[in-house]
Amino acid sequence: MPGENLSRDEARERAALLSVDGYDISLDLRSAVGADTSDGPRTFRSVTTIRFRCAEPGATSFADLIAPEVTAVSLNGRDLDPSEVFDGSRIALEDLAAENELVVDAQCAYSRTGEGLHRFVDPEDGEVYLYTQYEPADSRRVFANFEQPDLKAPFRFEVRAPEGWTVWSNGAGRLADGVWRFSETKPISTYITCVVAGPYHYVTDTYTRAFDDGTTLEVPLGAMCRKGLAPHFDADDVFLVTKQGLDFFHDHFDYPYPFGKYDQAFVPEYNLGAMENPGLVTFREEYIFRGKVTRASYEARANVILHEMAHMWFGDLVTMEWWDDLWLKESFADFMGTFANVGATRFTDAWITFANRRKAWAYRADQLPSTHPITADIRDLQDAKLNFDGITYAKGASVLKQLVAYVGQDAFLEGARRYFKRHAYGNTRLGDLLAVLGETSGRDMAAWARSWLQTAGVNSLTPQVLLDAEGRVAELAVLQEAAESHPELRPHRVAVGLYRKNGEALERYARVEADVDGPRTVVAELAGAGAPDLVLVNDDDLTYCKTRFDETSLAALRAGLGSITDPLARALCWSALWNMTRDALLPARDFIDLVLRFAAKETDIGVLQMLHAWAESAAVHYTAPERRAVAGRLLAEGAARELRAAEPGSEHQLAWARFYARAAESPSDFEQLTGLLDGTVTLPGLDVDQELRWAFLDALAAHDVVGEKELAAELARDDTASGKRHQVRCLAARPQAAVKAQAWAQVVESDELSNALVEATIAGFERASQRELTAPYTPKYFAAIERVWAERSIQIGMLVVSGLFPSLQESQETLDATDAWLDAHQDAAPALRRLVVEARDDLARALRGQACDAGAEE
Questions:
Q1: Which of 308, 602, 651, 766 is catalytic?
Q2: 340 and 348 in contact (C-beta within 8 Å)?
Q3: Is 308 a known active-site residue?
């Protein structure tokens, strides 16, 4: 990673000096197949021609390229010595003219880490598949360029590929004389150019839209995956959501889809959920489901499809100037993904998932020491890589939801329409968006931005209820608090809901919207209402805050959380209780008890699956050590009970089966799982398909019930890329010292594994039932991470530093060891330190939670 960074100041200097007229890029990918006889990395030829202007003739600048070898460099017809101008990541450009042409002929390396041009060999049939992934700055691993978002330009690609392959790029392509040539793109940033190549299974459709002015837009649609996944590929559903989304955004944005075709590629070993390359969106292939999944999985996929589609406008058509304003694309896409899911698809309850799952990511990120304003201070590319986080995505989306409540949906959407038309194919900063929103809403957007976009931290809102002599509400106030580290009290537009028992149900009988500002706000409209059993201060989830409860409300939840009739209100209460557990205000045992008593009544499958994850985390991280065995036993017994009680064949049955596998801990549990695997035990309606088999085997391997022989046999049964990842994870999960030593060496001491197999090995390495076995790796971790960060790609560095942190060694000694490393490495890369600081904070939070649980009364 050294020498590959780019600072914001360097980018600004280059943008002031240069403007780019266009790129012509020629790639020869025929080397992707066949034996590799070279000693170094497998490479491909990349020839790039860049036409650009310089505002100060005679000046010096540089182009970006990361490649094992540069064969030739020509600037304005003058041949340059590659050994003199290329340092491994930059090409020095001196004595620039007013108009310039740079030609770079290089040997670039195929990637095995999902950065640049990734090469994947399918173990099922030996076929080779390629795809690119660049964000934030990896297109320079494929072609020479000016790698920053504000130097937009049109791109023309041509690609030579092995015979029988198909190649796709951002523009429409055609094959002639053995070369794939693609139409020139609109002006776009380097990081959203894309190439996908290989023997992909490809399905087509067409989207047609007639506009009021009499014009018609026709968009060719395509969807692709590996041939091995074709039997599982439900392309019809992908196209359905795609068409619904295009209709929705055309209805609301008043700007026709601007990039011609719309291909969607589901690719192997992908680091992200998806990437919004215009005309050729890439997704992780796990969104093609090999077995039965719940509705929540289909909803999540639809949300990602719509999120990436929103980027065609927010991010691709109009792009942030630098990564400081990453929120201008990611926050909007995250909000629009759910907004469109609710408004255009069958997933009309998607705001429940957003409130329960997406915002949990934001709340965690916003309480870390590394929290930052939504408009962040991004000094360089390493900062940018780490800023694709819960603040930029989920908090930003939550704040936009608050903004819609603040200015009104019509004003918000009209602002978006003006923003697109005013800045099409350009780059923007915060002020550009605020200007149009101020115009359409008449609100003081600068004050709103100062509170919501330019400060960090999350507020807590707690109801305070005073009753009169008749038992009615004399005064209801909302108390607002903030952490000492981030004391900003923000203006919140909230709905306050009052709930009370009606027979067996807990129902809302009063609701008022109010502006909460300052430490205490009286909601006068609720005076005189009947006494509530429950007060929900962020009903309908209009604002971004942590919701707290008064004692009466908390008692009502303990007695009847599952009887709340509104599913969104239930989800908000669950989220609030989980935040209280993480904040050491509610003992982990109490949260687990609530899950065991009420989770089975949860109708929303996404909420149920989130509760399973939270209960597992509560037992592993927040339960007092002396009570872990009890907590684990209660979860396993509860999961087994609900699995048997679930409706046969339902998605709830599937969710409980998966949770039971993760919670299993006793010989009887393992006997049950083994029986389900070999068919000697059956449950009506439960289809133990291949993916569920691997879930059961993971638990059995981690508890030494199955070993290498059984896992090899299962891989023979499922000899696919997915099967290989599952097997690698299960192998690393086995509870033997030699297994852990081998896994550690494969990940930390070697770079032989691909990114997907590194991730799978790490997932298997540390298990809650194996704390003593992995304890010796704590000092090894701190001894290794700086070297790993320096020697490996940033993606692998992030996987190792975050994934192998000794989070299960929850003791003051581990906390002290972390502090000692931070004290001794003040000059380490800021991005590396950030990851360690975040892991330390999670550890300290877990210790506080354990202390809370230990002090709770039985």
A1: 308
A2: no
A3: yes
